[in-house]
Design goal:
28% helix; globular; alpha+beta; peroxidase; Glutaredoxin; seven-stranded mixed sheet; two-stranded antiparallel sheet
Length: 153
């Protein structure tokens, strides 16, 4: 697994969204993209992050951004999450773990001394050409959209 770096082209992917529609990263060509990876639907940190993107969605769009969330949850889980919190953006179901592995966010985690594999919370900010402009490793779940907007200035 290679670690992606700022200045590199973001790997394209094709997967299903919360509506079962096939979506590719290349579908967003010409737009700035906030591609954020999160561990699990409807958990406290992931909900805070998603709701922050929801609450600031119009401001993000006004700055030319589209928001795409990716987790290893399936379409059904994403649909419930989107409906419960009225999320206006795309959530990608990566239940094959192909995308999280390609982006280097499928990592060993440690909770209460127990080691397991899971998704690292990480945000990639892409320009209109799909080039990684910024990688946010330390995501502030309650202010994730502001982190991106601060970088965009």
């Amino acid at each position: 697994m290679t670690e992606l770096k700022e200045g590199e082209k973001a790997p394209d992917f094709t997967a299903k969204d919360q509506n079962g529609k096939t979506v590719s990263l290349s579908d967003f060509s010409g737009k700035r993209v906030i591609l954020y990876f999160y561990p699990k639907d409807d958990t406290p940190g992931c909900t805070a992050e998603a709701c922050d993107f929801r609450d600031n969605y119009h401001s993000l769009q006004g700055n030319g951004f589209e928001v795409i969330g990716v987790s290893t949850d399936d379409e059904k889980s994403h649909t419930k999450f989107v409906n419960k919190y009225n999320l206006p953006f795309t959530l990608i179901a990566d239940d094959s773990k192909e995308i999280v592995e390609r982006y280097g966010v499928w990592v060993e985690k440690n909770m209460y001394g127990k080691k397991y594999m899971g998704t690292a919370r990480k945000t990639f900010v892409l320009d209109e050409n799909g080039i990684i402009k910024k990688i946010i490793d330390k995501v502030d779940t309650k202010n994730s959209s502001q982190q991106v907007l601060d970088l965009a200035k």
